[in-house]
Amino acid sequence: MPPLPACALRRFRAPAPASMSLSKNKPAHLRSAKIQGEVKARKGPYRASGNWWDEKAWDRAEWDLELENGALCQCHASGGRWELDGVYD
Predict the structure, then answer these.
(1) Residue ranges of the domains in the chain?
(2) What pLDDT is attached to residue 4?
């Protein structure tokens, strides 16, 4: 994905449930009620985690995606589920 000019990530107030097809363990096709399409380019995963010291531990892998239709979005995988976090302007 080429460097982008300054743009804002418009986060959804609650991430939208999504389904992701993978190719070689990388996002290949995104489907959600808000946006869908074939992944043209991707950056990530950016990994985050917390509470590793107790049973409420969490972790997630975030991805920035460019879809074939030109849409730019951010999504994440956590606990085997995918969610769409928002879209870039």
Answers:
(1) 8-35+60-89
(2) 61
